[in-house]
# Entry
Amino acid sequence: MSEIVANPITNSTLALPQSMALNPVFDQQVILGLPLWFFVDAFLVLVAITVLLYWMFRMKRLASVRGYVDVQKKASPFDEMVWSINSTRRLSIELFKNIDGVLGYPDETVLLKYVHNDNIPPLTVGNVGGILCSESYYLTRDMVSEMARDTACEEYNRAVETIENSTGPITNHPDYVKFGRKNLEVLYPDGIVMDGYRQFDPEEDSKYKPVGMSARLNGGILKRETDRLLIGQKEESLWLKLAVPGAIIMVIGIGIIAAWFAPV
Amino acid sequence: MVDSVLFMGGILNVTLFGIPLYFFSWAFLLVIAGLIWLVYSLVSWKAFEPLHGIYYAFKAKSKAAFIFNVNLQSELISEAKAKCIFDYAKDFAGMNPVKYDFKTNEFVELPILPGPLGAFQRRFWYYPSAFLDIDLLHGMLYKLGGANHDVEIAKKMQNYEWDAKHSVTSGGVLIDMIFDANNWSVQTSPEHKICVRLAEVWNEQNPKDQVHAYSKLQRYINEGKIAAPYGFKSTFVCKWARTDCGCPVIINNNAMAGARRQMAADLVDQNKHPFDKWLWPLILAGGGIAVLILLMRFALHFI
# Structure
């Protein structure tokens, strides 16, 4: 008896092999001869693409803070998480190289270089330590002490007329250096009392910040000084470079030849 | 109606365990979508956990806040969490639709629609619509999207008296940097609970001049309008040692000296003649060969 390879032909016009099946609902060809299951498939493909696009869009919002994850991935002692505020007040989290206390982009051609004072507490976000820098100032920043200084200067300026033998208001960094720091310590001997809840104002802060000390300038000076040191190093001549290794090769060669012809 | 020709030659009509393959293709696509969701949410998204505030601020069309304490332990959170004393969503959860009457400063219950419409109305009532003019469609969209409008509510309740300082931007979102020394904005802290109570009492007594933001509460405490209870901290003392580190008077660049020398040394190393690197390996290899030849010749003598 021969093997049955197809279902018996019934009312349907379609002869179907035994390994195939038709569903009464999903195999209905409703539009353009396409079965219903195809539209369900198309819908599910659309769902998958939508999910992908949704997450891509969501993650794109966090692209500027990508350094936070990069630092955790690398985690070498030379990798540093830096919250960097650039000249257009854009905040980004970057992965910087910390070499000999000087922080800079891994790309050596970028001039921005910062110096970190290790007395400033690290800025920790989710147990990842880092530092805050802004392009206009080459030292790393401690916003708490900056706000304290701003508060003290503002309070001092408000009360300056009532202070005997006053040296005048503190209007900028040279004033703060010249007499402000000393006078403020007289006013606040135990430390500066400031609001426990306070919004940082970069505008207000810039009043008392030293000018002309940008991180880019600092990097430029560093580069120039490095180049100067390099120029200062005497360049050896090619003959001198080849003399020592040449002599060593000659001695070794003579040794090999002597060993070859040595009578044993 | 099934045509005389199967789509794609019926390749997906082939059965496996008695089920056509296209059923498996559905399951496969659903698994792919689920995997995309899982990988992004558990790997990519979770890695940025303390920085999610940027996305939520973008979604709520508000600012984000970079909030830090005395030890510079910081977090990037939504502006609402960082600035608003009250959590309006929590206060109005499960309540009947109400509207705030700004003339009388009281809440008025809205009429409930009859039958299933009322249930629908209660289900989709969006709490900011108690304070803000949000139409039904936007209300539903915001509710389903989880958009938070607490900042707008707080602004309106304070008659738009709002501390606006210069901010930085990141990811297309404005970010305010806020110092919170005494954990006022930490929802579970006792200080936060005291802030809520102080603001509630003040608002009851002064409905025309309400306090809904920490900055206004801080100002009123400083001005003596609101009396803080004993032990409640509203200030921070920054010691001079710290101020002098953060704002140095004498800026020396000792650290730079070493860095310059090191950079120069690194560059010299980079430019070093490649032969120098092979010097010792060459000497050792050459000496080794000479010794080997001697030994071989010595061995040959006995063969």
